[in-house]
Amino acid sequence: MESAKTSSAIRNIWILTFELDGFARVGGLGKAVSLFVKTLVERGLRVTVFIPSHGRHLSWEFRSRFNLRNLDYFSVRGFRRGLDGNLYPYNIGAEEGSYHNARLIVFKGLDYDTGRFLDSWEVYSNLPEKVCLFSRALKHWVEYSNEVPDLIHSNDWASGLAGSLLKIYLEMRRIKIPYIHSIHLLSSPSFPWHYASDEWCGIPNTPHKVWVGYKHETLNTQHVWDSVNGNVDHFIALESDVLTSNSYGYLNEVLGRFGRWLEPKTCVIHNVTDWDVNSVKHYVKERVGSDSRSVVRRYIIDYISNNNELIKLGSLNDIEFLIVSSGRLTWQKGFDILVRTLDYIDGRVGILIAGIRIGDKDFEENVIKLVRERWGRALLLLSSIDEITLKLIVYSANVYAALSRYEPFGIVSIEAQALGTPVVVSNVGGLPETVLDIKYDVNGGGTVVSLDDVRTVAEVLESITYTTEVVDSNRYELVDSIRTYWVKDLIVRYGKLDLRSNAIRWVDSKFRKDNLWGMLMSCYEKAELYSYYRTL
After folding, report:
1. What is the pLDDT of residues 344-363, one digit of tens each?
2. Using N-to-C axis directions, what is the helix angle for 454-473 and 485-494, rounded to 10°?
């Protein structure tokens, strides 16, 4: 029987990622992986994070922040053979640093043709080539260092191809390492076998064990790749010992696409948050002089409106109450729906969106047009802002709106609730799992809505806005303005609804690092088990 690392004490973990909060982050992936790392390290595990440089090593600020130093012994030259038969050279180096007491290994280019991919500042630019070189770098790392972890954990397809390569390569060396892959967001690119193969990305076409629903079968790598028509996400799902997602709703979508027979080897790792209302209250008392949300609301509106360094559009004139949202400016996030709700909401209520531009020009122009048409009641931020400013925006709000058309989880929802801001979320993907719905439990901190009717969404947003203000300012006359019948009924029955306290308690009970630790260990133990099955 082949050797297997099946010790119940997994102590040495390799995390593969393209995003890491503070180093390189585009969306929620970087924050989620960062909390994986922090949680594991705090529990005494040895963690090594592998990531492309994304050019960060060229910045003295980043070198200092992460204590980066060049690894002179790691300098790898090689060739890739293209479909045209020509050889394309690469030269890969590495830097070592630290990240919250984890070891950080950063792969970089040592020549122009390698650096223009691995060192590109934009995380996902030239992605297929960056993925290939990252995958080859990890294989060379094992060859040069002779290091072997107790478990490999990759995140999304960009690092999942490297994870699959390591799993297969190590199995060729008769070493079975548990391999877990987390899908935070499906991209589902497809490529011919040549892309993944030893000719280009470095995955050998070799017989190895793959789970087929009731047992492991020995299959050639190309056979597995071709069986899913070169879909990278699907290939990684088959190769991993355990497949995870960040919500049960999204995992259900993944299984619907890739096959429900995969379900026995799946699990869920919810995103969690380290946002804390008390630290924000302490900060605003020092910066603003009061932790009153209405005072902070006026402060943050004035700060953004009068800050000429911020790119923004629209304005908030004579606004008493505030609905906020944030995220990437894409159709997925539903900001156009949110702005249109203003047509059916009391004029005292405004909307502030902290947008992140990702190059979706058509959608940006559409949202800008909608904001212009509602000037004085909507403000769209187009500049990147620091996290503390975002926290102040969320803290100041009466309600946070997450009206995504498609969302695997929705970390923004739990971040908002952690600061005591109730949420209204759409009934898609994992968003319903992030909130205890006040419709069904008086201890809830928000509610779930369907996006089918903008008028109804507007009515709920307005009603939750007034509900929070009743408690914040003791303005009980606002109860008469609540149009959503079930919200008013709950207030009549219970006197008042302290949605802010409810939201904080909900997050503290479900979405903190203690919860994450339990989910990670449960999934890691399952990966260990399925890795052991590969030895039988």
Report:
1. 999 999 999 999 988 899 99
2. 20
pLDDT of residue 5: 40
Rounded Cα–Cα distance for residues 101 and 105 (Å): 13
Detail the DSSP E strand segments found in 53-196.
Answer: 69-81, 87-99, 102-109, 151-155, 179-183
Strand order, beta sheet including 312-316: 312-316, 377-381, 349-356, 321-328, 399-402, 423-426, 446-449
What is the end-to-end Cα distance of the chain in Å, rounded? 7
Name which of 392, 390, 405, 509 is nearest 25 in CA terms.
390
Residue ranges of domains in the chain, CATH in brackets: 12-272+515-533 (3.40.50.2000), 277-511 (3.40.50.2000)
Contact 513, 274 (CB under 8 A): yes
> pTM for the full model?
0.92
With vertex at residue 476, the alpha carbon angle to CA 475 and CA 478, rounded to the nearest 5 degrees, is 80
How far from chain centre, in Å, is Cα 201? 25
Query: Two tokens at 394?
Result: 């969320």
Which residue type occupies 330? T
pLDDT single digits (tens) 179-237: 999 999 998 799 999 999 999 999 999 999 999 988 999 999 999 999 999 999 999 99
Task: Read off the pLDDT of residues 479-517 as tens digits, 9 standing for 90 and up.
Answer: 889 999 999 999 988 888 999 999 999 999 999 999 999
